[in-house]
Design goal:
The protein is mainly beta. It is built from 1 helix and 18 strands. The protein has a domain at about 90-175. Strands 14, 15, 16, 17 and 18 form a 5-stranded antiparallel sheet that branches. It has a 3-stranded antiparallel sheet with strand order 5-7-6, with no helix packed on it. It has a two-stranded antiparallel ribbon with strand order 1-2. Strand 10 (about 185-190) and strand 11 form a beta hairpin. The longest helix has 4 residues, at about 1-5.
């Protein structure tokens, strides 16, 4: 269920001005958790299936987001191959309700429901469970393998669900509006099909709970459950945004001389602008946020790359 929850999270925001992090490069048709971007701009993914797509100002070359595109694992809708063998999937169907205004009938909530993928097509009204779980309390997804409904109260969602027990923890949905979301202090809004408030973090610090990683979420960094794949170390080949060890990020091979130029991408080190140091030969520590300005508390964040 943890994998299923992460199938199609589409984010908005701006990426780093140096190099957009690698988000996806391929698809394993035998694995229902692996779904990649389509030529129509479908969401890239994490190793655990989380699709994280950013709308970014054009980064300088090399642009690592121009990668081989694929399809969702089973072409849930209609997938059409192009002449070059790349599949194009149509846009997700619209949500059946508004998660921002919670316009469902009394006694129901607008949340993720039904089977994956986690996208606008999975947003629907569902009955609020009797005696619903509150913020921070244990919760349960009521249908095995589905995204919902769950036992959390209105305005909450059952997050980080264990695939065996189907149990997770109630976290808040973002409030406000899609163009001006709000979350409690110390949290950020992962403005996706279902906007979730997650703990904000600094990738240079190991401050996320056990079993979570500090993941780049389009503009800010938030604590996100670890995938079920092993992490890759410095300068090792990577393909997904959450595939590198803590303190590293998946960037284009041109970021370091030590990277395997035949690999999809490479795990590159973050760095501290207040004490700049980089492990690669000829690398420089440059700000991660040249434009737009960094979020508060991340002014010191840099990334190592070759000038």
């Amino acid at each position: 269920m943890r994998r299923a929850l992460l199938l199609a999270i589409t984010l908005t925001g701006c990426g780093p001005g140096i190099l957009d992090p690698i988000l996806t490069t391929g698809v394993d048709p035998s694995d229902p958790g692996d779904a990649t971007a389509s030529e129509t701009g479908g969401p890239p993914q994490t190793t655990s299936g989380a699709s994280i797509s950013s709308t970014s100002s054009a980064p300088p070359t090399p642009d690592p987001t121009t990668l081989t595109s694929g399809v969702t694992d089973d072409c849930t809708f209609v997938c059409t191959p192009t002449d070059d063998g790349v599949f194009i999937s149509p846009p997700d169907p619209p949500a059946q309700c508004d998660v921002w205004t919670q316009d469902c009938p009394v006694g129901e909530k607008c949340s993720a429901a039904g089977p994956p993928p986690f996208s606008t097509g999975s947003i629907a009204c569902a009955a609020i469970a009797p005696g619903p779980a509150q913020l921070g309390e244990p919760c349960q997804v009521l249908v095995e393998g589905h995204l919902g409904p769950d036992t959390c109260d209105l305005g909450l969602y059952c997050h980080d669900v264990d695939p065996l027990s189907q149990k997770g923890t109630c976290i808040p949905l973002c409030t406000g509006a899609a163009d001006n979301p709000a979350c409690p202090i110390g949290q950020l809004c992962m403005n996706a099909a279902l906007p979730l408030c997650l703990a904000a973090c600094d990738p240079l610090l190991d401050a996320c709970p056990a079993g979570h990683t500090c993941l780049w979420l389009a503009h800010e960094f938030g604590c996100w459950p670890d995938g079920d794949q092993p992490k890759h170390g410095l300068f090792e080949v990577c393909e997904y945004v959450d595939q590198c060890e803590d303190g590293l990020i998946c960037l284009a091979n041109e970021s370091a001389a030590e990277c395997d130029k035949d690999g999809a991408a490479c795990c590159i080190s973050f760095c501290d602008l207040n004490a700049p140091a980089c492990p690669g030969v000829g690398q420089a520590c440059k700000t991660f946020y040249p434009d737009p300005p960094p979020p508060a508390g991340l002014e010191h964040l840099g990334v190592c790359f070759l000038p």
